[in-house]
Amino acid sequence: MLTDKFGRTVDYVRLSVTDRCDFRCVYCMSEKMTFLPRNEVLSLEELFLVAQAFTRLGVKKIRLTGGEPLVRRDVLSLVRNIGALPGLEELLITTNGSHLEQMADDLKAAGVTRINISLDSLKPDRFRQLTRTGDLDQVMKGIEKAVATGFRALRINSVILRGRNDDEITDLLDYAVSLGINIAYIEEMPLGEISDHDRQDTSVSNEDVRTIIEKSRELTPVVMKTAGPSRYYRLHGCDTKVGFISPVSHNFCESCNRVRVTVEGRLLLCLGNEHSVDLRSILREHPGDQALLMQTMEKAMDLKPERHYFYDKDAPQIVRFMNMTGG
Ligand code: SAM
Ligand code: SF4
């Protein structure tokens, strides 16, 4: 079992499988991104070894993210191998949906249990502006294919930005309801220097989002034990759950059960801090030494900080981009 100094058990890992992406979302990347040289990125075999070591240490839930996980070549072989790991209860993916139409069936067959799909606008031109390269039609076909494939608890993730898509809060909700799936609104986080807007101008708190929804809909709180930074509500009259992910305005840290592994194999103990341990050097300097990898992971738990310090004036600015961090 992985336990930290504050008595928190870590049983959830978010594994970034690539820093690359076919989109350039304005809140996630700058327009001209430099991606890592390939030899700095964990190979599929190394990613599998990391996942295997974590499951041996009691991790029950792994989310594959990035970058865009579905653009990594041969990602399905990794998904299949991780999906077959003993002890793993849930294998999740967060995707921008651009490759979902072609891949949904294979992902299900490979053992993926749940998928989150990012969608910030239902207007094709605006969707293109927000993602810089994305095609809304392709993403909607991907979402609808995932629904038809029978994934349970599918969820749309929407980052809401003032003046850019805050007029679509209820339209996005209606879209989720029409497909019988869930939706979560995400507050923009201050990760990486972006070029497109000043984050102070576009920030919308989830309190504001909820107030807008409650003008016309009834929301009932749902109690969920491992919701992390999310608060969930049920929308009256249907099955759709509405989540509010507020890492900035809410402090969820006391019940945090998760860690991240960046695409370079850096085990990151907290989204909002730089405390980390280099797993790549263990994998490359001690090939085959699974025991050392597991020991390193166990020891790393001592570094997990008590809480994040987003927006504290005196805290250093986080320079990692979200695509490096693993969203
Ligand atoms: N490419 C995939 C996608 O877009 O779903 C997975 C990786 S992406 C980094 C994961 C999630 O992080 C997406 O839902 C995205 O909207 C969100 N995200 C990216 N940058 C963010 C930021 N600065 N603040 C809040 N959420 C962000
Ligand atoms: Fe790519 Fe996802 Fe970042 Fe958008 S949010 S640029 S889709 S990694």
Descriptive tags:
14 strands; alpha/beta; 11 helices; two-stranded antiparallel ribbon
Characterize the structure shown.
By secondary structure, this protein is α/β, with parallel strands linked by helices. It has a single domain (2-325), classed as TIM Barrel (Alpha-Beta Barrel), CATH 3.20.20.70. 31% of the residues lie in helices and 18% in strands. It contains eleven helices and 14 strands. The chain has helices at residues 44-56, 75-83, 100-109, 124-131, 136-149, 169-179, 199-202, 206-214, 279-285, 290-300, 322-325, and strands at residues 2-3, 9-10, 12-16, 61-65, 90-95, 114-118, 155-159, 182-186, 219-222, 230-235, 241-245, 258-261, 266-268, 276-278. The strands form two sheets. A twelve-stranded mixed beta sheet has the order 9-10-11-8-7-6-5-4-3-12-13-14. α1 (44-56) crosses α10. It is globular, with a radius of gyration of 19 Å. The two termini are 24 Å apart. Iron/sulfur cluster is lined by residues 21, 23-25, 28-29, 66-68, 96, 118, 322-323.
